[in-house]
């Protein structure tokens, strides 16, 4: 049989993700957090979105609101931190850039995880996994685990196994593990543990006698397609080792940009919301210009809190733009189309804009009549230049420029320094 | 974390300023004689940072490294990818803090040495008992 020889050259997929990403990024610059329970809080310091293993050991569930944890924090020695997106974004970019050196075939899947196409014998793949793990830990400073298998679904499962079983040393190559061990693992894990299967589907699968991952891997793909969906059939095939979810290169022409925030204190007037939307319009313009993109459609929205069912309002308006543009004046004006839909007095907890139908700038010159007077004056690039020089918020268009009333910006009371993106917040090293 | 990142965090890492060495500006209509010799400005990133993924900038607090030309308030460029060797200035983790010292690896043991007689050396039996955070490659000394 020539199969083993063939197998050797079959590409496999490595799934790499950072352990407790946000907490690990914080620890990289503050070693005093090592070994202590740490939680990182969501926007506005709402609830725990990342827990260090020590915080998990305390029994703190994911999503636990901070107000419930705060009273016991001292007794536990619990450290809570606001989300330091500047830090996490930079650390993520470093991890991805480093991983990109191990494979030309890199799919950045989320801020803390990536898939890589890899090739080699089982021994070579294991070595590669350990090399990547060591390099990210040493060069960037955060711990990762690696799962390698023939399909994405199995690679994710292998990674999960590597994380939960110290015997692997952080790297699991699925095919190198004895078949009976794999089956034991799969029989112990509920289908809900699989990538892409939600609670609702779990109930439906359970109703058909499919409880464990092993059950699902042994199900008939055709039956699954008929009773559930093609997506679920793909999962079954992937569990059986047949790749069905292709690797995706990073989408170059990203088709949307969203600017949205939850407010520290709710907004209740159209006047305040006008200011918020103006800021987003300007940010969208800067981001589009940076990537040489123009948008054709702008959606502007606001929302009340989900935790307040008695006072719900989710106004949104979709504005087709007369022509593709990155002009801050036009984008801001379009964003303001939401204002007539705002009910004064309603507590809006969130608002944002989304620009879609993006296309590269300058594909075709517009007819003279449609030419945009603001763009001609380069207002967008001027605003961006001034902001870069004097800081965000130093200049603004119309209502975005109002100096007072910026209390709707995100609440981040427990923010660590932005160690890698701000010159005045660099990590301090002691010379004493 | 289930989806491809849509809006991505775009802020790059700390980036050092470029130093300007450019041809003189010239009035329109007359070509600059320097134009053909201009290959771009000196980029400090290129010269001071070997590997952007593993390089961080830190700020020094204290005077224990004065003898090495590192003063309070100076910035250090630290490369985490470098192998810490005897004689390197390193950032080490000591008592949960980042500390800068000169690394001495001798047959008798490993020493974290201050470059100021007022500060004592710190001895450890082996390198493995020490967490070296990174190796300092440059000091941005304020003059």
Written overview of the protein:
The complex is a heterodimer of chains A (432) and B (143). By secondary structure, chain A is of the alpha+beta class. Chain A is 38% helix and 20% strand. Chain A is built from 16 helices and 13 strands. A five-stranded mixed β-sheet of chain A has the order 5-6-1-7-8. In chain A, strands 9-12-10-11 form a four-stranded antiparallel β-sheet, with helices on one face. The radius of gyration of chain A is 25 Å and the shape is globular. Chain B has a seven-stranded antiparallel β-sheet, with no helix packed on it. In chain B, 26% of the residues are buried. Helices cover 3% and strands 32% of the residues of chain B. Chain B is mainly beta. The N terminus of chain B is likely disordered. Chain B is built from one helix and seven strands, in the order αβββββββ. Chains A and B meet through helix 5, strand 5, helix 6, strand 9 and strand 13 of A and strand 1, strand 3 and strand 4 of B. Strand 13 of chain A pairs parallel with strand 1 of chain B, so a sheet runs across the interface.
């Amino acid at each position: 049989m020539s199969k083993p020889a063939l197998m050797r050259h079959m590409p496999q997929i490595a799934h790499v993700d950072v352990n407790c990403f946000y907490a690990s990024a914080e620890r990289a610059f503050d070693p005093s957090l090592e070994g202590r329970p740490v939680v990182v809080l969501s926007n506005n310091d709402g609830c725990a979105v990342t827990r260090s293993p020590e915080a998990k050991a305390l029994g703190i569930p994911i999503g636990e609101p901070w107000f419930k944890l705060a009273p016991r924090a001292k007794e536990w020695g619990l450290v809570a931190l606001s989300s330091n997106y500047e830090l996490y974004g930079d650390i993520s970019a470093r991890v991805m850039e480093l991983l990109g050196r191990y494979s030309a075939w890199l799919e950045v899947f989320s801020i803390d995880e990536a898939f890589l196409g890899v090739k080699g014998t089982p021994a070579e793949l294991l070595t590669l996994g350990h090399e990547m793990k060591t390099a990210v830990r040493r060069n960037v400073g955060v711990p990762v685990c690696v799962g390698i298998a023939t399909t994405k679904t199995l690679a994710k499962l292998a990674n999960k196994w590597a994380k939960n079983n110290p015997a692997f040393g952080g790297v699991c190559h699925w095919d190198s593990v004895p078949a009976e061990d794999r089956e034991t693992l799969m029989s112990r894990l509920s289908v809900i543990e699989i990538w892409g299967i939600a609670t609702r589907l779990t109930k439906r699968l359970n109703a058909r006698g499919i409880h464990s991952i092993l059950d699902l891997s042994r199900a008939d793909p055709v039956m699954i397609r008929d009773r559930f969906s093609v997506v679920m059939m793909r999962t079954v095939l992937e569990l059986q080792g047949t790749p069905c979810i292709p690797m995706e290169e990073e989408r170059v022409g990203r088709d949307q940009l969203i600017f949205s925030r939850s407010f520290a204190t709710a907004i209740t007037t159209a006047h305040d919301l006008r200011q918020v939307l103006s800021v987003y319009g300007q940010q969208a313009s800067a981001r589009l210009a940076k990537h040489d993109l123009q948008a054709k459609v702008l959606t502007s929205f606001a929302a009340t809190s989900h935790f307040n069912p008695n006072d719900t309002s989710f106004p949104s308006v979709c504005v087709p733009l007369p022509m593709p543009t990155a002009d801050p004046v036009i984008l801001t004006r379009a964003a303001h189309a939401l204002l007539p839909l705002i009910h004064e007095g309603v507590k809006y907890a969130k608002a944002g804009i989304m620009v879609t139908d993006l296309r590269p700038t300058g594909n075709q010159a517009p007819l003279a009549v449609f030419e945009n007077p603001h763009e001609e004056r380069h207002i967008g690039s001027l605003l961006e230049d001034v902001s870069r020089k004097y800081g965000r918020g130093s200049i603004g268009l119309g209502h975005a420029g109002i100096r007072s009333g910026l209390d709707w910006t995100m609440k981040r009371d427990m923010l660590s320094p932005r160690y890698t993106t701000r010159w005045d917040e660099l990590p301090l090293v002691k010379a004493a | 974390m289930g989806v491809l990142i849509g809006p991505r965090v775009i802020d790059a890492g700390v980036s050092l300023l470029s130093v300007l060495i450019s041809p003189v500006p010239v009035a329109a209509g007359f070509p600059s004689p320097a134009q053909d010799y201009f290959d771009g400005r000196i980029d400090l990133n290129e010269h001071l940072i070997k590997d952007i993924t593993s390089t961080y900038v830190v700020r020094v607090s204290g005077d224990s490294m004065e003898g090495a030309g590192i003063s309070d308030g100076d910035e250090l460029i630290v490369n985490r990818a470098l192998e810490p060797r005897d004689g390197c200035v390193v950032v080490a983790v000591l008592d949960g803090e980042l500390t800068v010292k000169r690394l001495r690896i001798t047959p008798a043991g490993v020493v974290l040495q201050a470059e100021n007689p007022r500060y004592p050396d710190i001895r450890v039996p082996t390198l493995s008992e020490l967490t070296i955070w990174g190796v300092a490659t440059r000091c941005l000394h304020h003059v």
